[in-house]
Amino acid sequence: MRSPQVEAASGLPEQVTIYEVGPRDGLQNEKTVVPAATKVEFIRRLEAAGLGTIETTSFVPARWVPQMGDAEDVLAGLGPDGRGRRRPALVPNERGLDRAEELGLTAIAIFGSATETFAQKNLNRSVSEQYAMFEPVVERALADGMWVRAYVSMCFGDPWEGPVPVGQVVDTAERLMDLGCHELSLGDTIGVGTTGHVHRLLEALGARGIGTDRVAVHFHDTYGQALANTMAALRDGVSVVDAAAGGLGGCPYAKSATGNLATEDLVWALHGAGVETGVDLEALVETSVWMAGQLGRPSPSNVVRALAGA
């Protein structure tokens, strides 16, 4: 079978927006640097497959994440198509915002942490200090008419600190959203979340006034729970899902983080449930097979393996 049998499932949104993170979160942990031209081709192929929102790159210093040291080259290769509202890039601080604005970007994402250890490792800041770093970034971006997303990492568990209290995550999310961000992405950075935990967190956020209309979910698949957790979030009202073509991904500062939820696995499940995504699954699989060839290893996506081998 090249596509799933469609049997509409109750309790799901009619349409889901896939926020494709493959070119950024998917590639940032690669041991060898992927050429800028290959990244541009990857993004072009994702666009052609129907992915509407694609996070293109990151303006972190190259000494932090060498794989993202070519942001200017990638955006030059994309031209005007890489600068719209649906082509955000990750920005860590005001210097990163300077670079993004110099290139004419209109959408950015900041990335905070719910735990102290990861905040220190990823941002060289404490949890409380991260807000002072992000505040001028968001203030300037909003003043310039930019769309701003806030990521929160370690929402479901931390490899150094263990379980992360739901209230601690909500406190972090609230502080970031109070800066004026338009969207919040909840990150299961090391893939330990479960469906009940997802429900509890979304419920607690709603009680603080952060509804699912402003929330996206971002699950890693370390324990094989990413798709189940995503479907649980959708049934709770979320309609924006982060995913990476081919299941690419990892985190340079959390070695236990494996790949993201594969976009193909998500699309297969959603299309089978009668949910619209706008994605051409065949073209997407072809893209991930092509990228796997560029990286020299097979895709971890179950759907890519099944369809590519069929």
TrEMBL record:
GO MF annotation list:
lyase activity
Q: Tell me, what's a Pfam family for it?
A: HMGL-like
Source superkingdom? Bacteria
* Keyword Lyase annotated: yes
CDD domains linked: DRE_TIM_HMGL
Q: Which residues form the Pyruvate carboxyltransferase domain?
A: 16-285
Q: Does the keyword Ligase apply?
A: no
Sorted alphabetically, which keywords does the UniProt record give? Lyase, Metal-binding
Cited NCBIfam families: PRK05692.1
Give the protein family.
Belongs to the HMG-CoA lyase family.
Task: Give the protein name, as stated in the record.
Answer: Hydroxymethylglutaryl-CoA lyase
- Organism (species): Terrabacter ginsenosidimutans
